[in-house]
Amino acid sequence: MCTTCGCGVGDTRVDGKALPDAGSPSAESSSAEGSSDGDPPGSSQASPKGVGNNPAASYRALAADSRARPAAQGFAHSHRHGETHTHAGGAPAEKAGTSTGHARLVQIEEDILAANNAFAAANRRHFAEHGIFALNLVSSPGSGKTTLLCRTIEALRATLPIAVIEGDQQTSRDAERIRASGVRAVQINTGKGCHLDAHMVGHACDDLQPDEDSLLLIENVGNLVCPAAFDLGEAHKVGILSVTEGDDKPLKYPAMFHAASLMLLNKVDLLPYVDFNVELAVDYARRVNPALQVVTLSATSGEGFAAWLDWLQTACRQQQAGKRATIAALQQRISELEAQLAQHARG
Amino acid sequence: MHEMSLAMSVIDIVENAARAGNFRRVSTVWLEIGQLSAVEPEAMRFCFAAAARGTLADGAALQIIEINGRGLCFNCGETVPLAALYDPCPTCGGYPVQATGGTEMRVKELEVE
Question: Chain A contacts of B84, Cβ < 8 Å?
Answer without folding.
Answer: 254
